[in-house]
Amino acid sequence: MKKTILRLSLVVLLSISVLSFKSPQKTDAILIKEVTYPPKTKKLNLEKTNVTLGFIKLTDMAPLAIAKHKGFFEDEGLNITLEVQANWRDIFDKVADGQIDGAQMLAGQPIAASIGCGRQAELVTPFSMDLNGNAITVSYDVWNKIVAYLPREYGVPVHPIPASALLPAINLYKKFNNPFTMGIVSPYSSHNYQLRYWLAAGGVNPGFYNSVNTQGSTTGQVILSVIAPPQMPSSLQSGAISGYCVGEPWNQQAVDQGIGVPIIASKDIWKNHPEKVFVMTKVFVQKNPNTAIAITKALIKAGKWLDDPENRKEATRILSKSAYVDGEKRVIDNSMLGTFEFEKGDVRSLPDFNVFFRYNATYPYYSDGIWFLTQMRRWGQIAESKPAEWYDYKIKEVYKPEIWKKAAKLLVDEGFLESTDIPVTDGYKAPTTEFIDNMYYDGKKPIEYINSFKIGNKD
Q1: CATH class of residue range 134-268
Q2: Considering the chain, what is the average pLDDT of its residues?
Q3: Sheet holding 50-55, edge to edge
Q4: What pTM value is reported for the model?
């Protein structure tokens, strides 16, 4: 009897041991399944899979590089070729002519094309590539003429530096009949409008466009000259220009080479301003609606990836490659990792210098586009006054948030975005005063905004 009980006890213990041994295997299987979530991208039925996109060697082309390098385009079934372009005019012409299918573009370019400024074309943007990202840099000759007049705190100049600080240098240049020239990348770039805005806010007249003076320097105290971004530092070094407004890495490149000093970041001119946009032709989108959505999906994913601080160092390694920005990683790091160097050794924290997803950065707001239209009117590129309804109508021809929303909703369904990542909006941001001069901007009231400035055309 005792032997029988002993045998039964051994059987029970053995069974418990076996069950205990198998249980962790079951748990591990469940954990492995959870690790593979979220699900893979649900591919659309694409009209065109082989797509060529253009860009300029600037750090804010990053969404294109990341979407390519991290396989976000490939996940959508797209075979994307990225082609570097020489300048903004080339990139515009190649998109308009159908030589390439889409591109990183200056926000003002498709808007200008829609209203007859320069070459006309029907272009649309479903995606805003970034916020902020520019700076204004001056030569050491200019810096040495103004630095003694700047207020200081803890031994360094107080920022942001107003444009009025340039007046000692501008007056000296005028006294010796030397032109005070500053570089911009295009007449329709944010750089042009930001530089003009900053100058005018500081009491410096940047000049006006008219049918005779297409350079926009009529009655101006400075001359603004168009120069391709990569050529800005060499133009500064040669003395051809006294300063410039450009995106990265070309401001930090001037610091690294010891030829110039950035004096203000564009986020201090207009906090979280729109910068570049992604553009396709209206015809391309009409013929390839699913392809347009798939491209937008990949770019949104890239923007979100970029704004994860854990990914920024990898991002700068990718951008430094010859296929993309082709610059020194340490120079690109200066702006992309949350800091910015002004005067040599004066490194300051600027965590929002480059924003690619936060603050709904990827959504193409009508009010962002209308701001560019107000500046075109303010400085004479739009020669005649227009009613407020015209601004709303024209921007809706170009900015297509409906494509963005379709892409974003698919990403929510797939688990890549949260529903809170989609802004609840009629396409207009709330009014803001976050400008260097604290001016009030409401995208639904463009005429009042234009008329509020001391320097500029009035309607």
Answers
A1: alpha beta
A2: 91
A3: 79-84, 50-55, 102-106, 276-281, 123-128
A4: 0.90
